[in-house]
Specification:
2 domains, Rossmann fold, 13 strands
Length: 401
């Protein structure tokens, strides 16, 4: 088989979940090629795959990492031009690689290009419904009604185009443990094509040594280990990690704390730390060791990271970006499932961070909840499901390994 992957290049989450699927196909003897843009190009290349770069779709942010909706909206005509150029680039790359099937992660341009080349497109998408971002609560019923109608209209307009895909794979759990509840709302146009497979994770907990053994091998003692794994765009990551370093410097020595900023660029060295209990890295090569070893995860609320935390039985403190509708929705979802706590970015201070971490680490209630969620998660292996789905579409016997 020849499989063409096209993940969204905004941040690393989409490429990050395509890479383990691509490795599965590569291990089975398939030829694999990627197309993407932005920082995802280097990320995919470092993972050992050939990648073609296409024109980037840009979004704007403020210095605090919040999404600048008005500025992004103001370049609408330019974005349409970039989108058309992206389709052209995809047409050329697809023609060059000649794939049997295209897997697009949240990219409409690739679905359209695949159809134009008469190649079967499969879509990976968890934001079925795009939520309009807002930084302040909407109190007026009329404005809330308009927002909901516009979001529903967008769902159906996009639905007609997503429906061009052969299958729409949703990397999320079915109820009651759906992570992005506000976004996993399908259009009637493609509801029969949906396949919920669970979050895509590259490494499962059972493949790693026990938590205590990992802690010792990594040089940690018996103190609770807090792991802050930060994802998102550069502005999001830099702002929140600088703030977390400042706050964690004040934490008592009864904790071990590790922060990974998610920055692969060595031009931005980590800020200094004052205590031996705190370690800060731009990047860790195997964050799953830290995830298995830790007792609690601090995260922005990215879909992949939250899914991984559920598999690894970790309670979470989520600090969603202001105005980031997906992260805000996921944070609300996790709080309602009692798998973690939410701290809004503008309310993040030492008392809020310390009290929420302390409660999660000492509460048997949260411990039982994360155990039950992990038992539910064990039923799902997204990489295997996607591999088998593609083999079925192409009528190719699949290898189990």
């Amino acid at each position: 088989m020849r499989i063409y992957f096209a993940p969204c290049g905004i941040a690393l989450g989409h490429a990050g979940r395509c890479i383990p699927i691509a490795k599965k196909f590569k291990a089975s003897g398939s030829a694999v090629y990627f197309s993407t843009y932005g920082e995802a190009v280097q990320f995919v290349s470092k993972a050992g795959f050939h990648v073609g770069e296409v024109p980037p779709i840009n979004v704007f942010e403020r210095s605090d990492g919040t999404f600048d909706f008005r500025r992004t909206l103001s370049i609408g005509p330019k974005s349409l031009l970039t989108f058309s150029r992206q389709i052209g680039a995809e047409l050329n790359l697809i023609e060059h690689f000649k794939p049997d099937l295209v897997i697009s992660d949240s990219r409409l341009s690739t679905v359209l290009a695949a159809r134009m080349r008469r190649i079967i497109p499969v879509l990976i998408l968890h934001q079925l419904k795009i939520m309009i971002p807002h930084t302040r609560p909407i109190t007026k019923k009329s404005r809330l009604a308009v927002k909901r109608h516009v979001e529903r209209l967008g769902l159906e307009i996009l639905g007609g185009m997503w429906n061009l895909s052969k299958v729409i794979i949703v990397p999320d759990f079915p109820p009651p443990y759906t992570i992005a509840k506000a976004n996993v709302v399908p259009s009637y146009q493609y509801i029969d094509k949906l396949k919920l497979v669970g979050p895509i994770i590259p490494k499962y907990p059972k493949s790693l040594p026990p938590s205590d053994e990992l802690k010792r091998s990594m040089g940690f003692d018996d103190r609770p280990l807090i792991f802050a794994a930060i994802s998102g765009t550069y502005a999001e990551k830099k702002m929140i990690t600088d703030r977390l370093v400042s706050l964690f410097n004040e934490f008592p020595n009864k904790y071990n704390i590790v922060i990974t900023r998610g920055l692969s660029d060595s031009a931005y060295p980590p800020p200094p730390v004052s205590g031996k209990h705190l370690k800060v890295y731009n990047w860790v090569d195997d964050r799953y060791k830290y995830l298995k070893a830790c007792d609690l995860l601090v995260t922005r609320g990215g879909h992949n990271t939250v899914g991984e935390a559920i598999y690894y039985k970790k309670p979470m403190v989520i600090i969603p970006t202001i105005g980031h509708s997906e992260h805000q929705g996921i944070a609300e979802s996790i709080a309602k499932m009692n798998l973690g706590k939410t701290i809004q970015q503008n309310e993040l201070d030492y008392p809020s961070l310390y009290s929420n971490i302390n409660e999660l680490l000492t509460s048997s209630y949260y411990s039982r909840n994360v155990q039950r969620a992990a038992q539910f998660a064990e039923k799902y292996n997204a990489v295997a499901s996607i591999y088998e789905t593609v083999c079925d579409i192409l009528n190719v016997p699949f290898k189990t390994f």
